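Whiteboard transcription, Tuesday session. T.W. wrote the C-alpha cells on the left side:
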C-alpha cells in the first residue's frame, strides 16, 4: 500500500513538472546537476519516505525544466551599486534554480553590463526570502502611500531609487511575471514612491529610468529576442505574444513614469541532452548580448 502511495505521489510530481512547459524532452542527460534535482524532488512531502534511487533516476529523466550542466553554470556575483556616476542596473530576479537557462541569461546580462561599465545590483528574491504577498499591513502604504514603508520595502525602494535600469528576470509561468516578481511590483512600487496624484490625474515619479525584462519561456511560437524576432516556426504567434507583453510593459512603465526598454524573451532553449549544448548555450548568450548592446549600450 505504501509503495502504491509512493508511486502515485511520484506520478503527481512528474505530471506537475511535465505539464508545466509547452515543450517536452524525451530522454534527458542531466549530468552532474542530477543530485540537485533529486534533492529538490525528494523533499516534496509526497515522496520523502522510502523513495529509492531507481525512482529518483526516473524522476530526473522526465523533467522538462532546463538544466545547465554544472561545468557551464556561471554563478556570477555582481559587485553592487556604488555612489559613482556610472549607470546602474537593478536585477530583480525570481527563479528558484541557479542552474536554469533562465538564470544563465541573468548571469550573462549581469556580467555583460559590468564588463561595459554599468554597475549591477542583484536582488535574488528567493535568496532574500522576499515576501510577495501584499498583506493588510502593507496594503494602504501600497495603495495610498499612507504611513511608513516597512524596512524590507524601504530597502528595495532605495535600490530602485539608485537604479537607471530596472530589469525584471523570471521564467514564463503562465504568461505574467511570476508570483514573487509580481509581488515585488505590488509592494515596492507604491503610491507616492512610483506614482502620485496631480491635478491632471496620476503621474509616474520614476522618470529617467527604464524598464526591461528577461524571460525564458517554454514555447511562444519560436523566437529569441522581441517583436519581429521569430525564427520562422510560427512567427505570427511569436509576434502576438511579444505585442501582448509590450502592451502590459508599456502600461506598467508609463504608470511608474519610466520608459519601456522592451524585453529579451527566449523559447529556443538548448535541449538538456543536446550534443552541442555548450555551443547552443553560447549562441543564446550571444543573442542576449546583441540585444543588450542595442538597447542599453548604443553598440
Ligand atoms: C508553473 C509553470 C508555468 C509555465 N507556463 C508557461 C507558459 O504559460 N508559457 C510558456 O511558454 N512556458 C511556460 N512554462 C515553461 C517555462 O517557461 C519554461 O520551462 C522555462 O522558461 C524554461 O526556462 P528555465 O528552465 O530556464 O527556467 C511554465 C513552467 C512552469 C513551471
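and on the right, the sequence the group agreed on:
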Amino acid at each position: 500500500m505504501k509503495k502504491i502511495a509512493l508511486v502515485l505521489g511520484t506520478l503527481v510530481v512528474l505530471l506537475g513538472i511535465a505539464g508545466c512547459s509547452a515543450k517536452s524532452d524525451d530522454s534527458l542527460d542531466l549530468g552532474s546537476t542530477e543530485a540537485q534535482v533529486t534533492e529538490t524532488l525528494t523533499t516534496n512531502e509526497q515522496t520523502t519516505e522510502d523513495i529509492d534511487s531507481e525512482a529518483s533516476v526516473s524522476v530526473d529523466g522526465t523533467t522538462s525544466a532546463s538544466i545547465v550542466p554544472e561545468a557551464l553554470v556561471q554563478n556570477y556575483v555582481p559587485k553592487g551599486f556604488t555612489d559613482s556616476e556610472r549607470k546602474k542596473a537593478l536585477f530583480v530576479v525570481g527563479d528558484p534554480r541557479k542552474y536554469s537557462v533562465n538564470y544563465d541569461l541573468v548571469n550573462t546580462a549581469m556580467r555583460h553590463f559590468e564588463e561595459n561599465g554599468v554597475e549591477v545590483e542583484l536582488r535574488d528574491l528567493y535568496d532574500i526570502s522576499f515576501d510577495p504577498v501584499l498583506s493588510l499591513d502593507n496594503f494602504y502604504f501600497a495603495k495610498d502611500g499612507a504611513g511608513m514603508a516597512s524596512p524590507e520595502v524601504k530597502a528595495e525602494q532605495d535600490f530602485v531609487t539608485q537604479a537607471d535600469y530596472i530589469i525584471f528576470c523570471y521564467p514564463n509561468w503562465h504568461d505574467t511575471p511570476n508570483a514573487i516578481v509580481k509581488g515585488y511590483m505590488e509592494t515596492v512600487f507604491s503610491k507616492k514612491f512610483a506614482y502620485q496624484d496631480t491635478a491632471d490625474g496620476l503621474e509616474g515619479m520614476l522618470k529617467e529610468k527604464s524598464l526591461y525584462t528577461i524571460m525564458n519561456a517554454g514555447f511562444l511560437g519560436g523566437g529569441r529576442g522581441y517583436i519581429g524576432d521569430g525564427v520562422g516556426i510560427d512567427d505570427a504567434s511569436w509576434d502576438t505574444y511579444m505585442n501582448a507583453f509590450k502592451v502590459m510593459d508599456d502600461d506598467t512603465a508609463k504608470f511608474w513614469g519610466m520608459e519601456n526598454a522592451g524585453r529579451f524573451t527566449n523559447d529556443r532553449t538548448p535541449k538538456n541532452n543536446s550534443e552541442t549544448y555548450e555551443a547552443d548555450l553560447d549562441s543564446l548568450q550571444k543573442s542576449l548580448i546583441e540585444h543588450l548592446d542595442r538597447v542599453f549600450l548604443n553598440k
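Someone added at the bottom: The chain has two domains: 2-62, 70-296.
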